[in-house]
Structures are given as C-alpha cells and as structure tokens.
Amino acid sequence: MHDNVIDRSRDITILELLDRVLNKGVILTGDIVISVADVDLVYLGVKLMLSSVETMEQLKSGKSIIEK
Amino acid sequence: MSENKILFNTGSFDGISEEIGKLTTNAEESRLKLTPDNADSGLAKLVLTLVELIRKLVEKQAMRRVDGGSLTDDEIERLGETLMKLEMKMEELKKHFNLTDRDLNINLGPLGDLM
Amino acid sequence: MEIMIYALLSVKKKPERLHALLAGMNGIAGADLHQLSFDEITAVVSNMSRASLIADKSTAMEYAAVIETLSKHFILLPMRFGSVMESNEAIIHMLERNYHDIQQNLLKVERKFEFGLKVFCDSEKLMAELREKSEAVSKTQRTTVAEIKNSASRIWVNKKLKEHRLEELLVTYVDSVIAEITGQLDRLKTISKIKKMVTPTTIIDGVFLLDKALKDELIHAVGDLQNKFPGLNFILTGPWPPYNFVDFTVK
C-alpha cells in the first residue's frame, strides 16, 4: 500500500473512534454529571485536530501553528 | 490506538477523511450555546431555525400536492405566490439577524427528523 | 477528587480475571483503574481531579483504548468520554438505580460487536445523473405546471417542483441502496441503525451489531454491495465496542 493510503486509513480510523467516544456511549445527564468534556472543553477540528479551546484560541490568534 | 479498523474500502479515500471530519464536527458545532451575552442573537437563531424547519415542511408538502396533480391552476398560483413570499421574508429575516443557512443548522434532536 | 467512568461491565463469574486485567492497565494520564460493583454490574473507574484533565485528542484516545481492551474480555457498555461523578458511592447508587436498563442493554450486546458502514457518493455526478433521468421522465409523462402563464409565482413553483422531483429521485435511489444493504445483512441477524443523507456526500451512515465471528461474511457482503454499486464508495470499519447501541439515558 502507498504511504498516503495508510495515513488516510489511519486518519479515518481515528475519526471514527473519536466520533464514538465523544458523541456516543452511555450518557450521564442532568444533575448527576460533573461537566468535563461536556462539551466546551473539546473542539474537534475538521483537520483531524482535537485540542483544548485554549489551543484553538492560540491557533486563531496565530501564536502557534500545529499541523496534525 | 494504532490498530487499523478499516475492513473494506475501494482504496479511494479522496476527500473521505475530510467528509468524516465534517460529520463529527457537526455534532459539536450545532449545539446552541445560550449565554447572557448572546441571548438576543441566540434566541433569534433558535426561533428562526424552528420557523425555517416548518417553512420547509410546508413547502415540501405543497410540492407533493402540486406534483400529485390534484390542485387547480388557481390554487397553484396562490400557493406559489404565498410560498414565494414566505421564502423572501425568511431571507430578509436572516439578513436582519445576520444569520446564514449554516447558522440555522442547530441540532434539534428528534425534531430534526421531521424533514 | 472526582471519579471518571470508562465502561459498565457484566461480571458474573470472573471478578478475579477483571481484577488481574485492571492491574495490568492504566487509565488516562497513567491513572490506576479500579472497579465498583452493584450485583452483577461493574463500573470500571479511575480517580482524577477535574482540574488535571486535559480534554484533548490523545486523552480521548487513551480513554477509548481502555474501553477497547476491556471489550475484548467482557461484555460492556462504553461510557461517553467525560463521564465523571463526584464519589464512589454516587456511582454505585447510579448502577443500582439504572440496574434494569443496564442489564437489558448488556444482554442485547452480549457476544456482539459494532461495525460501521458509510457510503459516499460523488454528489455532483450522482445529481447530474438523476437530473438527466428526471428530465427524461418529465418530458415523457409529466408536464410542468401551466407553462403558458409565465407569472413569477408559476416560474417559482416550476423551479421548486423540479427540485422536489430531483430530491424524490435521490431518496428513492438511496432507499434502494439501503434495501440492498439490509437484504444482504439480514441473514447475518444484525441489529442495524441506518441514517440516510447525512450530508450531500454521505448518503448512508449505518452501524450494525453482530457476532464477531461473522466478520468475514460481513466483509464479503460489503464487497458484493460495492460491486453492485460501482459509482459509490463503501467504507466498512470495526469491530468496535457497542458505542451506538446504548439505548438508555442514565437517570
């Protein structure tokens, strides 16, 4: 397999995994859950980038550029 | 986790990871975040999302009727004029509140399945 | 100190095996994993302080890796990332209160794994094909509404009518693909959840719950589907823990 194809298929595996672990599974609701990743801490970027909001802000203001 | 979980594909991944990324991102971005600071625009967004959903439903139902051939010319004329005006009004409202179609894509939960 | 929950397990006969398994694993940020039980249901948890949790990609993946490993040995329901409660007692109480729902869901996923099937299309190409088809149809059978009177509202109605017919054709087409998929998979006795037209490109997003032993048959079936619809792009992933088959909300 071409390297690129291996990279892409790994990307897809990771995205599929993140979609599941962030959006699916047993959900605790209401007053019993202490909000951690629910949800503003987590930002999943289109470019396979998951980072804290803080990092996102840095990216927006151009302080650092992190490639995936 | 380094394990590759792809069991079948044609080897053509052009644009696919971006597409899947978009699907995942939607769930995050489409939450309506209401805070004291954005209550006005947040409410407009919520209300317009609902209005737009209903408008589209009505339009869709109307086109079904037209396509079914059970309406008279006059009825179609009036229906068309009404729906066209509704659409124009909606565009005005969106402009007024500075909202795009994308903004009106809030996750409405089970309500979204109406479409 | 808060407690993070990773998964809910059915541990009927082999509590010592879980103990040994957990001793050899770490939770997120290297935390020790331990178990909290109520009757036959066990929650796998780790202590953490909320301040120390960095909700980023690698943490989410560490969390998922714990669930993945556990799922190879036990029947479980994965928790969504970020499930935190304030004390061990609160968690045990939660297990007790939701005992029936948890048991029902565990029973459903017993010996089964989740597989994902997404079907992508070249949206422009597909729409162009359907448009051609739709124009051919309207030439032969249907007439657009009163083309003689060209009032603004008539023109508008005709435009919307065209869009409507095109959309109907797309729905019919996607439904026919879904019918093929379910036809192929029904004999594997799967439980499936299928969403259609998630985006213009992703026309089908399905998840299936089935016996892991049937994996090769599933791959084979998807291969057949791909041959049948060469213009579409099928991607099958798995086996995953049953993330999409938790059908209750914790009270």
Task: Give the class of chain B from helix and strand content and strand pairing.
Answer: mainly alpha
In CATH, what is the class of the largest domain in chain C?
Alpha Beta
Share of residues in helices of chain B: 55-70%
The helix/strand series of chain C, from N terminus to C terminus, equals EHEEHEEHHEHHEEHE
Distance between the termini of chain C: 22 Å
- What's the architecture of the largest domain in chain C, going by CATH? 2-Layer Sandwich
Provide a descriptive summary of the structure in words:
The complex is a heterotrimer of chains A (68), B (115) and C (251). By secondary structure, chain A is an alpha+beta fold. Chain A has one domain. Chain A is built from two helices and two strands, in the order αββα. In chain B, helix 2 packs antiparallel against helix 3. Chain B starts with 5 loop residues before the first strand and ends in a 19-residue tail after the last helix. Chain C has two domains: 109 residues; 133 residues, Alpha-Beta Plaits, CATH 3.30.70. Chain C contains seven helices and nine strands, in the order E-H-E-E-H-E-E-H-H-E-H-H-E-E-H-E. In chain C, the strands form two sheets. In chain C, strands 1, 2, 3, 4 and 5 form a five-stranded antiparallel sheet that branches. Chain C has a four-stranded antiparallel sheet with strand order 7-8-6-9, with helices on one face. In chain C, strand 7 and strand 8 form a beta hairpin. Classes of the chains: A alpha+beta (68), B mainly alpha (115), C alpha+beta (251). Chains B and C meet through strand 1, helix 1, helix 2 and helix 3 of B and helix 2, strand 6, helix 6, helix 7 and strand 9 of C. Strand 1 of chain B pairs antiparallel with strand 9 of chain C, so a sheet runs across the interface.
